[in-house]
């Protein structure tokens, strides 16, 4: 009897059952102990033994499929053979889903029928990570037809042609070196010719610097004039600063430039960014200077313009905010140690870091360190660069309706508290009360009031700069986008509710999304829409308005469905803007264009303008045309770059043979702006090796 009990309590199989594997205790099978029947008479034993053998076979089959699934996760190239539905093979109530399925959708299937594909959905591979939280990638869950539509195009039209939808990634840390001298030579070796550099630097100041105020233009221009003087050593910080500016301008200026030589720098921004990152990595945090923050901000903006390492953007701005807090940029100094110039530049840098990190919080759906920071820094003044390092006081701030190069920062600061509070309620719920729908309506009203209070800056006042009207519209658009982004974020959870109480969320989100698309179309007419690639509003609005259209019944008489024709026409009008993003980024990002194109086609299918098959074919053909155009541009740029590199290497070799420069500190001209011996951010409180004899030197 004791032996019988032991045989009941232990698992006598050579392999543990499936539930043993899941529980992690193959030695003791508690499931079998509870479910296996006691031995019965001999006339029934044969039949029960056959049933047990059948159960063992099914369990073993389930284990094999489970092991193949685990092996597939470790080795993506592995495919499960005969990958049918596990529940059909084993009959288990809780089957283990394989990573790969062989069920390929048929051409005549509609969007609701296409639910399985060869590759698993990205949200299934990482449901709780990047794919599950990002504001854009959440649409793959909210619009179930989106991913199968893109996947069908890949399987049916792109893969047979050998086209794989993977972004070519730039080489990371290509210029790692432990020598500051080697790093200096690498930075200078990456500089383009002076004419092209002058054009790109000028383009940066005429466009991007009107938004995020990083540089004091008069100070930079004085240093830049000496930068190209022959036979004069350069500060590596100045070289890195110039390269970071070129990295931002090169991607955008090609389409607006009349200089064909600029097209040869298509692949250079990635190299410039990598070199600047490596230079920043080598710098000590003991005496961090203002120029270090300037290079860091510009390098980050260049990564956004060129779509480089986008998964690290939230982490990168968070790290910059941490460094700024360590250096005290989040607090206004209580003493007069800083000059008026330095105080204003610190405010500008803190405003840039604050805006970039808050933007990433809304885009990534993640909290920001700013939720816990008590900052008393005043907003940057609404003034142009009418001051310098020797100024004893700053000019008076201009009225809010007066446009200056700092107007974007000035007006952003006015709504910062509201936007920061909303992000805290959305992404840091542990720090605040739950966000109710009554609060959503209150925040909607407050955000709408902020949008209406933005000055149009089109009063007809005469301006000397003919480029100023375009920049005013661009500044207004960015201020509007960051407020509209908040409205879409707070209403998004209420869009797919059965309760008619939330009908306002649909109408508000529809109108906001439409306004964003119309503004992008307006900026495209002015030739400056590509500057908005610093944000993701175009794709966010496109997917939002598509989702709202698909939520409407086909026989609905709602405003959204009644306006579906004009909505699709607007999406078609904005689709070339996303094509430009793919074309003018050397490391092309196919997913942005494909996702927007797929969303447009799904809206057409919903209203009956396209069938599932014709929409797939149209989307695939449009991407193929775009892909081959991009390949042609890349080949042309590479050939031109190789020719230019050979000429530059010959010139450098000749110059090196004629003269060799000394690289010690005495070779550089005196400059507190670049020289690390003059810290301008603050003294490191942990630097215990400081020389007290020199503390009071001026």
From TrEMBL:
Residues 202-439 form the Xylanolytic transcriptional activator regulatory domain. Residues 42-51 have a biased composition (Polar residues). Residues 31-54, 103-127 are annotated as: Disordered. CDD domains: fungal_TF_MHR (cd12148). GO terms for biological process: DNA-templated transcription. One of its GO terms (cellular component) is nucleus. Coiled coil: none annotated. InterPro entries: Fungal_TF_Env_Response, XnlR_reg_dom. Keywords: DNA-binding, Metal-binding, Nucleus, Transcription, Transcription regulation, Zinc. This is Transcription factor. The gene is lepB_4.
